[in-house]
Amino acid sequence: MRLQGKVAIVTGSGRGIGRSIALALAREGAAVVVNDVDADVAESVCQEIRDMGGSAAICVVGVGTKAAADALVKTALASLSGLHILVNNAGITRDAMIHKMTEEQWDEVIKVHLRGLFLNTQAAVRVMREQAYGKIINVTSVSGTRGNIGQANYATAKMGVVGFTLACARELARYKINVNAISPVAATRMFMDIPDKIRIPAEEAIARESVLQRLGTADDIAPLAVFLASDESSYLTGQIIGATGGPMNLL
């Protein structure tokens, strides 16, 4: 139980990678704030955690506002009595070719992936600095480091996650707060929602490039998050780690 006594917030944890991470952290002893905009799926994940003997609390907010960030931290402190781990996983896509992309499509993606990342981290860090301990795990994407057709907004946001991670790692090291990012390639709900004419060729390309010759699953990604949340990773900070089934050079 590597995370016994720890409390984690996992944004966007009602489904996909977020759900797998929340469950994996709970299996290692962490109490988890489950966050999603859908109360039913968030409560379902909370019940799964309780059924395995763990502790969980629900926070139904859409990330991207100060009120949402404060609510996440307040839930952790009031319901689970602490905050040690923050996983910034919540994300959306609003795909469109650049000449057709609307300002709203751009702004929605940037709000969730970057403004939410900033505000959630800021709120959590206020607690972590005082206790001189914290683990922050951000989720980026190869769309950011390689680009992807129809995802100028998403790719921009995900590359922004990289820069944010590197800056925060330097800034927060003095407070014994580790900041790292995971760059997964997996069959998440967002990936599967990409139109077939784009998604299927992408899947084929990923399989060709992967040493394992397959696209990963959400459960393939979660163990890496557990490691980064644990004290076993205390010497790692400012790392952008690929979870791709094969070699990957990010920076």
Portion in strands = 5-15%
Number of helices: 9
CATH class: Alpha Beta
> What is the approximate shape?
globular
Taken together, the total number of domains comes to: 1
Helical percentage? 40-55%
Description:
The protein has one domain: 3-Layer(aba) Sandwich (Rossmann fold), CATH 3.40.50. It is 50% helix and 14% strand. The protein contains 9 helices and 7 strands; from the N terminus they run βαβαβαβαβααβαααβ. A 7-stranded parallel sheet has the order 3-2-1-4-5-6-7, with helices on both faces. Helix 1 (16-27) crosses helix 9 (218-229), helix 3 (66-80) runs parallel beside helix 4 and helix 4 (103-131) packs parallel to helix 6. The mean pLDDT is 91.
Which SSEs are present, and which pair or pack?
Blueprint: E1 7-10, H1 16-27, E2 31-35, H2 39-51, E3 56-59, H3 66-80, E4 85-88, H4 103-131, E5 134-139, H5 142-146, H6 152-172, E6 177-184, H7 189-192, H8 196-209, H9 218-229, E7 240-243
Parallel strand pairs: 1-2, 1-4, 2-3, 4-5, 5-6, 6-7
